[in-house]
Structure formats: structure tokens, C-alpha cells
Structure to design on (559 residues):
């Protein structure tokens, strides 16, 4: 309960834990810091917002006013880099909204002049921001001989920033990062550059008033957390390429005109959950049994989506279908090994499915049927000895015992060992009772140990599928966003715009998407036309009294 509050307040929290098994040591159990949770480096669901990325940023001030920047989300494995003048990097920071920013402590003044003091920051030593250190860190992590394959070799300052971000993960004891599989270049030429003022004044992500609504709030009809995060990214990185825009529109159009296809995909997406963050937890070895079952459900949902896309009469959807990976062997293995409704924690037991391990099934049988067997011993000994009031009991001092009332004392066999005398009875133990006691008392402990080992083996096997599942998560997010556009278009009666490379803006019956959703019941938004041809006119002057809708007209044109 305290961890999320501390992180949101910008604090850094050290997690201390036992470093050895108490059963294996006779001295005090060693404890130490096992993890450092910071605003930019967090994996827990109670800290993260499922619709937002949790980016850690690193900034490097290079020569000639060039600034390198890297954005890393350890909860999803996304790793991006770019470089350019400080105003460009500031725009990227406004777009990605990192939760924590790293920089060289010698550059504090430079950082505050370029980016202000509104960020949660952490200063690192200057040796972290050297080309040699950064390259070694990146090459060792990715297991490559150069960074050419990632398309970032020409960004020396971006590489230094990226190396600093990885170095910080080591500093905060996040060493299991196999899910960070690539470093991507931020392709600035593909997108319209939006600064923080545009994002704020057009209320793209957040409303200015507490009771207001943002554009994202109106058009976000995604059903998966990955889709929600991707839509947020699309909102602040609008495409410039007409062909790519038309490709997206074609898919939305197909969803719109094919209700059966739309309903099938929508139904399956509701079963997917946060595939991206679950597979990241697999990499760090912190995935719960319930999340493993959720991963299985997600992979099962991929099958009908893939089939539907492959048979769709749309090239983009067919390409998406071809790239989706069913990971059938992993799906089947989870089905076979894990209970359908396991507990949240492995140490609660009953995680591994019945029939998977004979040894485990035998131990469970001993544990569950122990009471029946004790009852059998009680009846057997009562018949043999004629002690009709014989009872089997248990206490913490000497375990299981046979209790004989004083009236039957003379019928006790010589082989029984007396352990305790009471006012009305005496208690005895027998070799058979002691032997079975060891089995019963040891079974529960052995069950937990065996389940933990089998579960751990499954997690290691799952790690091989990280790249395929990350691709799946990205493709499903893409499909989810475009399906959401079809849903919101139908509900709000949106029309597909024609987008071209020309200099004419021609909007017929334009409406402000946010204002129209906040109109009082029974009132209708009054649509407006806008026509601007830059060859004939450089601008328009809009006049009118207060509250006539001048600003709404300007803003809906901008949107």
C-alpha cells in the first residue's frame, strides 16, 4: 500500500528481503537490498498505469548543441533513441512523458535551462555518459558486434543516452532484462512534431479542467492495455505519410463494413489482457501463476484472430494475420502443467495440474488422504486390541498418538510406547504411526518445493518465446486501435476524410469531437465548414460575440 504512494511522490524505494532459505541456515538469515524501485523503473501492477507507458529517459549533452535521448520502459521492453537540438528533444520528452529522467550531474545547469525543472530527475556520474562505456553495455546486452542492425549507428549521442539507461537498470538491481530485445530509432521524419503547448491546449491527452474530457478520452475504445498505450502514442505522433494514413483508414473501413469480422475480433481481444507486461514479467521471473494462465488465454485468442485476418479482403489485415505467432507448444504446455484456476502465489500450492507429475500426485494423495489413513489405523488397532474408545490425536510435542482411557489400560500391547499420562487416560505411540507421521508432515513441504521447482522450469521455458509474444502484443495493439476507431466512428457518426498532399483544407460540416460529447441532453452541436486554399488566401478572420464558437472552430480545425 505504501510503495505506490512513495513512487508517485517521486521517491526511490529500496526493497530488502531474505537472501537465503531459513531452513538451510542455523544462524540469523542474511538480508539485503534485492531491488530498487524508482518512478522510472517499476514492474508492479500497483505502481503502473495500464493505459500508459512507464518510460525512463536518459539525456546526454553532446558537442555542438546536439542532445541524445533514450526512452526505456522496463515493464514492456520498449527501448527507443534519437538525437537533435534541445528543442526537438524537449518535444520528444513532452510526447513520451517519462516518469524519471537521468543526466550527467555535471550538466545540471544545462539540463534545467533546456528542459526546466518539472521532471523527476536522477543524476549519474560522468563515466556513465562515455561512448566506450555505453557501447560496451549495449553490445554486451544485445549480444551483437555492432549496433548497425538496429539502425542507430549514426546517432552517437543517442547511443550514449541508451547505454546510460541500461547502466541505471544495473544500478537499481534490475539484471533480468531479456525482454529488452532491440533498440529502435525514433523516426522523426514520419511524424508531425507536436510541442507540449499544442498537446496541452488542444487537450489531446488531458483536459485543462478537472471535469473536462480529452480527445483521447473520447476516441479511446481500445479493450487491451497494449492498445490503450499504443493509441496514446499515435495521438502525440500523428503520421505524415499519406499512404500509411490510407492503410490505417482502409482497415477501419473494413472493420466498419464487416460487422461479423468486427465482433469476432472484438470478442477475442477482450480475452487477451496485458500480454506485453505479462511477458516482461516472465523475463524478470516475477510472473504469477494467474498471469501464466492469462497468457494461455491470450494465445488461445490469437488463433481465431489470425484465421479471420488471413481470410480478410484487406492487404494490411492479411499481413497482420501472417505475422501473428500461435506459440502452440507453449500454449499446450501451460494447459498441461498449470491448474485452470491457480492461486496468485506459487507458495500457496495447488499450482501444478493433476496428472503432470506422478511424484507430485503421490505426495498430494498422502497429504489429502492422511486423515482417512489415520482413521484406518484407529479402527484396525481398536479391533486388534478390543479397546473400543481408542482415539488417534496430535500435538506439537510428540506428533500423532493413540489415546487409551484408563479403563482399557490393561489391554495395551507391549509394543506400544507410552508418551504421556493424563488424569483419565494415557497416550502411546507405535512404529507404524511414527512412520506415517513422517510421510504426512513431510508431504506438504515436499509438495511446495516440487511445485516451485516445476513452475520455475516452466518459466525458464517460456523465456524462449519472449520475442514472438512481444510481436503478437504489438500486432494485437495495432488491431485493437483500428477496431476502436471503427467503433467510435459508428457511435459518433464520423466520416472518413480524404487525405492528400495538397495545400487545401476543405472541411464540410465539421464538428469538435470533444465539445459535442459534452452538450446538454437534447442539444446538437452546430457544424461548420472551413475552406482554406493557401494559393488564394493565407488566412481567415473569424469574428463574433463571446461564446459564439470562435475558439471551438479554431480547435476543431487544428484537430
Amino acid at each position: 500500500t505504501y510503495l505506490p504512494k512513495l513512487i508517485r511522490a517521486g521517491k526511490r524505494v529500496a526493497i530488502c528481503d531474505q537472501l537465503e532459505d531459513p531452513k538451510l541456515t542455523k544462524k540469523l538469515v542474511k538480508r539485503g537490498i534485492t531491488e530498487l524501485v524508482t518512478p522510472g523503473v517499476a514492474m508492479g501492477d500497483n505502481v503502473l498505469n495500464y493505459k500508459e507507458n512507464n518510460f525512463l529517459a536518459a539525456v546526454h549533452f553532446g558537442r555542438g548543441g546536439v542532445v541524445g535521448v533514450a526512452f526505456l520502459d522496463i515493464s514492456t521492453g520498449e527501448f527507443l533513441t534519437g538525437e537533435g537540438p534541445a528543442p526537438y528533444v524537449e518535444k520528444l520528452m513532452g510526447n513520451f512523458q517519462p516518469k524519471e529522467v537521468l543526466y550527467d550531474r555535471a550538466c545540471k545547469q544545462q539540463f534545467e535551462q533546456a528542459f526546466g525543472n518539472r521532471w523527476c530527475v536522477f543524476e549519474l556520474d560522468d563515466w556513465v555518459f562515455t561512448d566506450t562505456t555505453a557501447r560496451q553495455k549495449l553490445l554486451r546486452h544485445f549480444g551483437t558486434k555492432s549496433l548497425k542492425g538496429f539502425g542507430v549507428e549514426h546517432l552517437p549521442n543517442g547511443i550514449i543516452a541508451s547505454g546510460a539507461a541500461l547502466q541505471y537498470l544495473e544500478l537499481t538491481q534490475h539484471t533480468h532484462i531479456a525482454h529488452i530485445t532491440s533498440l529502435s530509432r525514433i523516426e522523426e521524419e514520419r511524424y508531425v512534431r507536436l510541442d507540449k503547448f499544442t498537446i496541452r491546449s488542444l487537450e489531446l491527452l488531458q483536459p485543462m479542467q478537472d471535469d473536462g474530457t480529452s480527445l483521447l478520452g473520447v476516441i479511446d475504445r481500445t479493450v487491451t492495455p497494449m492498445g490503450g498505450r499504443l493509441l496514446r502514442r499515435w495521438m502525440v505522433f500523428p503520421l505524415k505519410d499519406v499512404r500509411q494514413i490510407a492503410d490505417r483508414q482502409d482497415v477501419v473501413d473494413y472493420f466498419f463494413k464487416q460487422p461479423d469480422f468486427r465482433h469476432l475480433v472484438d470478442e477475442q481481444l477482450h480475452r487477451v489482457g496485458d500480454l506485453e507486461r505479462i511477458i516482461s514479467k516472465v523475463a524478470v521471473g516475477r510472473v504469477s501463476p494467474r498471469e501464466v494462465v492469462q497468457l494461455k488465454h491470450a494465445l488461445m485468442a490469437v488463433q481465431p484472430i489470425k484465421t479471420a485476418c488471413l481470410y480478410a479482403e484487406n492487404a494490411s489485415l492479411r499481413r497482420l494475420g501472417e505475422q501473428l505467432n500461435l506459440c502452440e507448444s507453449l500454449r499446450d504446455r501451460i494447459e498441461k502443467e498449470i491448474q485452470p484456476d491457480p492461486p496468485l502465489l506459487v507458495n500457496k500450492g495447488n499450482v501444478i495440474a493433476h496428472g503432470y507429475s506422478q511424484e507430485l500426485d503421490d505426495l498430494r494423495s498422502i497429504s489429502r488422504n492422511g486423515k482417512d489413513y489415520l482413521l484406518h489405523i484407529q479402527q484396525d488397532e481398536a479391533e486388534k486390541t478390543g479397546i473400543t474408545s481408542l482415539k488417534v490425536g496430535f500435538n506439537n510435542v510428540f506428533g500423532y498418538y493413540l489415546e487409551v482411557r484408563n479403563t482399557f489400560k490393561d489391554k495395551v500391547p507391549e509394543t506400544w510406547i507410552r508418551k504421556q499420562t493424563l488424569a483419565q487416560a494415557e497416550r502411546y505411540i507405535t512404529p507404524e504411526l511414527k512412520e506415517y507421521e513422517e510421510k504426512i508432515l513431510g508431504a506438504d513441504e515436499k509438495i511446495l518445493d516440487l511445485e516451485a521447482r516445476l513452475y520455475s522450469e516452466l518459466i525458464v521455458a517460456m523465456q524462449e518465446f519472449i520475442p514472438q509474444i512481444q510481436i503478437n502484443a504489438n500486432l494485437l495493439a495495432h488491431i485493437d486501435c483500428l477496431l476502436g476507431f471503427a467503433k467510435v466512428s459508428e457511435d459518433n457518426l464520423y466520416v472518413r476524410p480524404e487525405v492528400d498532399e495538397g495545400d487545401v483544407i476543405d472541411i464540410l460540416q465539421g464538428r469538435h469531437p470533444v465539445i459535442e460529447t459534452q452538450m446538454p441532453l437534447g442539444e446538437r452541436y452546430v457544424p461548420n465548414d472551413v475552406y482554406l486554399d493557401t494559393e488564394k488566401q493565407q488566412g481567415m478572420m473569424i469574428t463574433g460575440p463571446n461564446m459564439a464558437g470562435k475558439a471551438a472552430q479554431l480547435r476543431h480545425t487544428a484537430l
In short: The first strand starts at residue 13 and ends at 18.
